[in-house]
Amino acid sequence: QVQLVESGGGLVQPGGSLRLSCAASGFSITFYVMSWYRQAPGKERELVAALTNTDGSTNYAESVKGRFTISRDNVKNTVYLQMNNLKPEDTALYYCNADRKLLPRRNHWGQGTQVTVSS
Asked: I want to staple 16 with a disulfide (CB 3.0 to 4.6 A). Which of 2, 12, 95, 107 is the partner?
């Protein structure tokens, strides 16, 4: 079965760090753009970070630039999001996304992992 399973979320104090993992199964992430999204209560889902499968270019939301880093390990078929200097505003449900650009287009979502930043 095609699955994306996020892990690594939890409760952390402001200024702390977390490393989220997204393990893919049933398909290879090699040919997919991998992204992390987040959604806080009462807010729309927003793109946090994206990583291409071609030249390795990245795209970050302005609010997390310099604090978050997205990476992938094609051998382990896993994507990561290193989050440093966390702020209360980072509190949200974080989702992993895989998007295949080749035809036929394919898109997969994980179930999400909760990140709560509070003192």
From this structure: 12
Quick check: 31 and 102 in contact, CB under 8 A?
A: yes
Tell me the C-alpha to C-alpha distance, in Å, between residue 24 and each of 5, 35, 73, 83.
7, 13, 11, 20
Q: What strand order describes the sheet that includes 18-25? A: 3-7, 18-25, 78-83, 68-73
- 3-state DSSP call for residue 88? helix
Q: What values do phi and psi take at 43, rounded to 5? A: -120, 160
Which tens digit of pLDDT belongs to each residue from 48-102? 999 998 889 999 999 999 999 999 999 999 999 999 999 999 999 999 999 999 9
Using CA atoms, how far residue 5 sits from 13, 19, 31, 49, 105, in Å, is: 24, 14, 18, 17, 21
Residue 71, CA atoms < 13 Å, CB-side half-sphere: 9
